[in-house]
Specification:
By secondary structure, the chain is α/β, with parallel strands linked by helices. It has helices at residues 22-39, 41-52, 65-74, 77-95, 133-146, 162-170, 181-190, 207-216, 241-252, 267-281, 287-297, 306-316, 328-332, 349-354, 390-406, 410-420, and strands spanning 3-5, 102-106, 109-117, 120-124, 150-154, 175-177, 200-202, 221-222, 230-235, 259-264, 298-302, 320-324, 340-343, 380-388. The strands form three sheets. The protein has a six-stranded parallel β-sheet, sandwiched between helices. Strands 6-5-4-7-8 form a five-stranded parallel β-sheet, with helices on both faces. Helix 8 links the parallel strand 7 (200-202) and strand 8 (221-222). Helix 2 runs antiparallel to helix 7 (181-190) and helix 4 crosses helix 6.
Length: 425
């Protein structure tokens, strides 16, 4: 049964996760990474057979054209049409994020930056408890819009979902490899005989994928280290209980550790949501997963005012925050921490998962206190530009020298004085 919390002092109990021994997992992940670095494709073949029970060879790890053709044949026209519509909408949204070069020249000084995409991006698409072609869209579209020259994708390949492959082809992914887990992250980070080294890795995964991304950060860039999915809904009497129940379950069905929280000022709404939650739960295809999630990490929190609810939401910094309240504009400016905000009764979280435009790869586990969603910026780098002429350098030279001497870096100071001691001819 979902928990009801009346005392805010008990609120933090909602967010206790199972105390899995991550250090043991981390040791296993580090060994996998080292094996891939040392033996390349051989390690990928061995770990794929060990973990995925899938026979693979260096020659078959790359998805073939025949496999792509078969995938297209198995996807119905309506689904393909919907996929393409979502992709077009995402492209339009991501184009709004494109940065221009920013260079200014003033009195002999040119400063600014030029914006360049990374050369090669790697995306990881989960394939365990569910298929996620939408993740292909969310990771590949911003990379393509950013101008990345080559996109590599890895996904567990024993039963690769046809729509996942179709999504990869539709989004311009250059190569798809049937590799999953920490070994896939290692392969993209360091390169193997068949899988090229990338510059940035994005995409969600299980705890082993998350730990692997943490380990390879620095060798490559990463988007974030994502945890279990989360939704937090702040609602008052104006909200629709059935809608809220449906939205809570939309996250609970991801996995047993997904978190679904309702914060409300209305005990009547709380009771109605409970009723609708279990009525809907019985009809779900992933009932057992959603039920465990709701029982372990679901809760309804009763507060006195919406302001109290917003304050609690800011403490949590949820991945997905829904505001199903009257006078939203009054409270919206008080939201400081959230991955994405869904406003009103007709903006359910799945709209963001598939179509709306903003990315569904979002900060979890409270990291929305400082992190942002995946986007074009994850696939670009800004290269600084500095150009001074002689007069401009002489104007500031003594200032720079003074700071260099203050740090005890005389060679730094002399690199300036060598130029300002005499005028250029």
């Amino acid at each position: 049964m979902i928990k009801t919390i009346d005392d805010k002092r008990d609120f933090d109990k909602v967010f206790r996760r199972s105390r899995t021994d991550y250090e043991n997992m981390r040791a296993s992940v580090k060994k996998i990474i080292e094996d891939v670095k040392t033996t390349g494709d051989r390690a990928l073949v061995e770990y794929t057979e060990k973990f995925d029970k899938f026979a693979l060879t260096p020659q078959t790890m790359l998805v073939s054209e025949e496999e792509f053709d078969n995938a297209y044949k198995s996807v119905d026209g309506k689904t393909l049409e919907s996929l393409r519509a979502a992709k077009d909408n995402l492209v339009a949204y991501n184009r709004r994020q494109i940065r221009d070069n920013n260079i200014i020249t003033d009195r002999g000084k040119t400063t600014g930056c030029i914006v360049k995409p990374v050369t090669r991006a790697g995306i990881y698409v989960p394939g365990g408890k569910a298929a996620y072609p939408s993740t292909v869209l969310m990771c590949a579209v911003p990379a393509k819009v950013a101008g990345v020259k080559e996109i590599i994708m890895t996904t567990p390949g024993a039963n690769t979902n046809p729509l996942t492959l179709v999504a990869a082809r539709e989004c311009g992914v250059d190569k798809v490899f049937k590799i999953g887990g920490a070994q896939a992250i290692a392969a993209m980070a360091y390169g193997t005989e068949n899988i090229p080294k990338v510059d940035v890795i994005s995409g969600p995964g299980n705890i082993f994928v998350a730990l692997a991304k943490r380990e390879v950060y620095g060798e490559v860039g990463i988007d974030m280290v994502a945890g279990p999915s989360e939704i937090l809904i702040v609602a008052d009497d104006s909200a629709n209980a059935d809608y809220i129940a449906a939205d809570m379950l939309s996250q609970a069905e991801h996995d047993e550790m997904a978190m679904s929280i309702l914060i409300t000022t209305s005990r009547k709404l709380s009771d109605e949501v409970k009723t609708r939650l279990y009525s809907r739960l019985d009809k779900l295809s992933r009932k057992s997963i959603a039920e465990k999630s709701i029982e372990n990490y679901g809760a309804i929190v009763i507060v006195n005012t919406i302001d109290e609810g917003i304050a609690l939401a800011n403490r949590v910094a949820p991945e997905h925050l829904e505001l199903c309240i009257e006078d939203v504009e009054k409270h919206l400016s008080n939201i400081d921490n959230a991955g994405a905000i869904f406003i009103g009764n007709y903006s359910p979280e799945p709209l963001g998962d598939y179509y709306a435009g903003p990315n569904h790869v979002l900060p979890t586990g409270g990291t929305a206190h400082y992190a942002s969603s995946l986007g074009v910026d994850n696939y670009i780098k800004k290269i600084s530009i500095i150009r001074y002429d002689g007069d401009a350098l002489r104007e500031v030279g003594e200032t720079v020298e003074a700071l260099a001497y203050a740090e005890g870096l005389t060679a730094h100071a002399e690199a300036i004085s060598a130029r300002i001691a005499k005028k250029e001819h």
